[in-house]
Amino acid sequence: MVQQLNEPTSPSTPGKLKPDKSHHIHHRFRIHSSHSRLTLFSSLFLAFILLLFFLTFTPPPPPTTAPRRVLGDSWGGSQWERLVSKSARRSSASGHTVLVTGAAGFVGTHVSLALKRRGDGVLGLDNFNRYYDPNLKRARQKLLERAGVFVVDGDINDAALLKKLFDVVPFTHVMHLAAQAGVRYAMQNPGSYVHSNVAGFVNLLEACKSANPQPAIVWASSSSVYGLNSKVPFSEKDRTDQPASLYAATKKAGEEIAHSYNHIYGLSITALRFFTVYGPWGRPDMAYFFFTKDILKGKTITVFESPDGGTVSRDFTYIDDIVKGCLGALDTAKKSTGSGGKKKGSAQFRVFNLGNTSPVPVSDLVAILERLLKVTAKKKVLPMPRNGDVKFTHANISLAHKDLGYRPTIDLETGLRKFVKWYLEFYSSGSNYKKVAW
Ligand SMILES: NC(=O)c1ccc[n+]([C@@H]2O[C@H](COP(=O)([O-])OP(=O)(O)OC[C@H]3O[C@@H](n4cnc5c(N)ncnc54)[C@H](O)[C@@H]3O)[C@@H](O)[C@H]2O)c1
Q1: Angle subtended at Cα 144 by Cα 139 and Cα 147, rounded to the nearest 5 degrees
Q2: How far is the CA of 180 from the centre of ligand 1 (A)?
Q3: Mean of all residue pLDDT scores within the chain
Q4: Ligand 1 centroid vs 177 CA: distance in angstroms?
Q5: What is the value of pTM for the model shown?
Q6: Pick from 59, 94, 253, 335: most CB atoms within 10 A?
Q7: What is the mean pLDDT of residues 7-12?
Q8: Residue 77 forms beta bridges with which residues?
Q9: Distances (CA, A) of 363 to 72, 218, 391, 403
Q10: Which domain holds residue 187?
Q11: Active site residue: 185, 247, 265, 318, which one?
């Protein structure tokens, strides 16, 4: 290498060398050897420095956990952990410490506020997906922030995030409301139902089963699991094996999955079958919401009747009644019996209907809205398409009444009045009008 570097750049042609060149060569060799010595010393010196470096340099320890992080997430760091802990700190000695999934959703916002108000520690989790206007979810998040509830921006499928949350906070309860809701959207995006309602739920149960202590879980199933049943009112004992939509099928799957986790790991699990929940801060994809919007805009609304010409009716349940049912379920939930993924004994497993137990035809819903909005709706009546909707829902709520003290008190007209008041205020206030898509 050294020699190569010192070789003449122009090739020496044999026979053209003069005799006196030997002196020259000799001289060159002298220069060469002094260069070589110098290079040798520098190499030795460099090797010595490198040796010193390797002897004294200790590589940083590998991270204790190598979390799998979902692309684009924004969690982690000491500041973030402080927010998480602060939000989950309870202000009442007897309060729970609750992780609310789907906290920026309609029901999640109301439940989180009610829990915080009475002194429970509440941490929210929501992925703010675009199923409906995310600005409405962000507006709910602001409301929660003002009440001291921090909503982590993340997905229930993110195992590393869930593990981190359970490492930072010893949750006593999980109120699981995150889901892909809505029956019709399943025909457009079936994968989103599997992602959130099946895979996401399993991921959450995995985190709960491994947590120490294991939390008690209360989660939202749906009246849709009664599917095509014709016996009314729907009772928890009725069959739930003929779903009319993929949404219903994923909720039914959730109930079965929950049972297996209860059985194997001793997780205390309560499923609440909600019946058409409505109210302020509601969901824009639900009929009472988009009817209000369209009636105010003078747009024609489509009212479905059942294929045999009969009315389509729903057991509309006001949000405050649902919140009371959720709190009742959390307060009566027994502790999970396992720890660190191992079952220590059988655990509580419950299913409750949370409805209003007085179904109202959708045509009556429209008539109430017309009165409240003081506008006559332009209506088109069509037979109900086969898109996942069922003809009627009607809850038997005697079990929830007996075990949770559940007693709905708000009739549809009273509840819709509150909704319309919120709607007009929210969408007419300048900032929201601009931000939230109509
Ligand atoms: N509102 C009703 O009438 C009704 C009826 C029956 C059952 N339910 C169930 O009640 C629960 C709450 O419903 P809602 O009306 O408040 O719906 P919502 O859509 O307003 O709330 C659900 C929230 O979960 C979030 N979310 C969805 N997938 C997620 C994921 N993978 N990770 C994290 N967050 C995710 C959404 O962003 C949303 O904010 C849902 O489980 C729903 O299926 C609601």
Answers
A1: 135
A2: 6
A3: 86
A4: 5
A5: 0.84
A6: 253
A7: 30
A8: none
A9: 45, 34, 13, 34
A10: 78-275+318-355+393-409
A11: 247
Residue entry with tokens 């060569």: 25
Give residue-wise pLDDT tens across range 279-330. Answer: 999 999 999 999 999 999 999 999 998 877 788 999 999 999 999 999 999 9
CB 238 within 8 A of CB 229: yes
Cα 310 to middle of ligand 1, angstroms = 30
Q: What is the pLDDT of residue 379?
A: 96
- Tell me which of 126, 174, 393 to substitute to probe ligand 1's pocket, judged by most ligand atoms within 8 Å of the beta carbon: 126
Do the domain assignments include residue 428? no
280 in Cβ contact with 422 (< 8 Å):
yes
Domain assignment of residue 427, yes or no: no
Q: Is residue 380 part of a domain?
A: no
The ligand 1 site (C-beta within 6 Å) comprises 102, 104-108, 126-129, 137, 155-157, 177-181, 196, 200, 220, 222, 274, 276-277, 283
Residues 182-229: tens digit of each pLDDT:
999 999 999 999 999 999 999 999 999 999 999 999 999 999 999 999
Q: Which of 277, 351, 356, 393 to mutate to test the pocket of ligand 1 (most atoms within 8 A of CB)?
A: 277
The answer to whether residue 246 is domain-embedded is yes
Is residue 234 within 8 A of residue 223, CB to CB? The reply is yes
265 is catalytic: no
In a 13 Å sphere around the CA of 127, the CA atoms on its Cβ side amount to 21
Give the count of beta carbons closer than 10 Å to the beta carbon of residue 367.
14
**Of the ranges 30-39, 50-59, 404-413, which is most confident?**
404-413
